[in-house]
Every structure is written in C-alpha cells, then in structure tokens.
Amino acid sequence: MVVSFLQSCTSSNTDKPVTDIDSVMTDTLKKELKVDTVVINEVPQKIYALTDNDKLILDLLEKVEMGYSFNEVKSKYDAVKGIRPEDKKDELASVGLTESVCKQSLFGGEAIAEFNFKDDSLYSYFFTYSEKDSEKAEQVFNAVKKYYNNQLGEAQLEMVEEENHYNRNFVWPVRKAIVPYLNFNLNTNTISWGKRYEKAL
After folding, report:
1. CB 70, CB 117: distance < 8 Å
2. Same domain, yes or no, for 63 and 147?
3. 93 occurs within a structural domain
4. Burial class of 73 by CB neighbour count within 10 A (0 to 12, 13 to 18, 19+)
5. Per residue in 129-171, pLDDT tens?
6. Which end of the chain has fewer CB atoms within 10 angstroms, the N or the C?
7. Where in the sequence is the domain holding 6, given as residue range(s)?
8. Does one domain contain both 135 and 57?
9. Is 43 contained in some domain?
C-alpha cells in the first residue's frame, strides 16, 4: 500500500514520472495563484498659477541678451535703477566689474534681479525669489521649470557635490556658449534663474 501510494504521488495523469519539482511548482503557481498587478499612478505636480506679470518677467530670459550694455538692458527692463561696483567693492569696479540690482514684484511676493557687467557688457544675470512656505516654493519652482521647458526644451539636471544635495540645479541647452539655468535650494526655499556663460570670464 505504501509503495502504491508513493507511485501515485510521483506520477502524472499520463503515468510519466515527475523528475523536476520546479516544473511542478511552476505549473501549480500558474494554475492556482492569481497575482494582481498594482498600477501606481504618479502624483501630479502642484504648479503655481503664473500671472501675466510673472510671465512678463520670466520672458526677459529670452529678451535680454548677453553682451548688452546697461542702457540696452534698461531698454528691455526699465526696473533697473543704476550701476554700482560689483558686490559694492571699489576694487572690482576698478577692473570694470559692475552690477545693477533691483527689487521686482513676482509670484505674489518680491524677487531680486541682478545684472552683472564687465566693461559695460552684460556677462550674467539672474532673479532670486525666496518663499517662507515650502509648499508654495515647490509650486513656484515647478511653474518656472515648466514655463521654460515650453520655451527652451527639456531641462537637464546638473550633478551636484554630495554636500550640496539639497540643491536642484537644472540647465537648458547651451546656445552660443550661454547657459540658461534654474536652481532650487530646498533648505532656504530659494529659487534663482538666469543666464551665465558656459565658461567663467
């Protein structure tokens, strides 16, 4: 009786001996186990609703060209007030480095615009916006990135050093050695964007 029982356990319906336990388990799993596929939808990004004024200021990235004089910048953006030594250091002014800094209403708050000149030729400029509410800061960052993606193509994430992991740095394709960029500091909820030369002066 024991022999007969063992034979029945090791035989299939075709009376062929089973020699591969893995195949038995595979067949059993295929027939008896039903595995549900769970589809996880991405959570849509929350994006700040840009106003017409916000878009007007963001559009300056395409309207203000590197190499512009101060007067040419002012013709595109009349909020600039005047020229001073870069970083308020006379020694920098003595070698031709100057800047123009002004405040700008933006995103329901206030941003700072800075234009840097070398011998009255624009070599970099950027806007900086800080937000106390981290959720709103994230939404503004998403809005700015999406707006420029529509104009400049998909931004590429720049690698940062490990100690700066709290920074998100994005750049758009280089054109004429000029890099449009966007930075989001997660520690301070500060967003900055502008243009710089690919290589430092």
Report:
1. yes
2. yes
3. yes
4. buried
5. 999 999 999 999 999 999 999 999 999 998 766 666 788 999 9
6. N
7. 2-32
8. yes
9. no
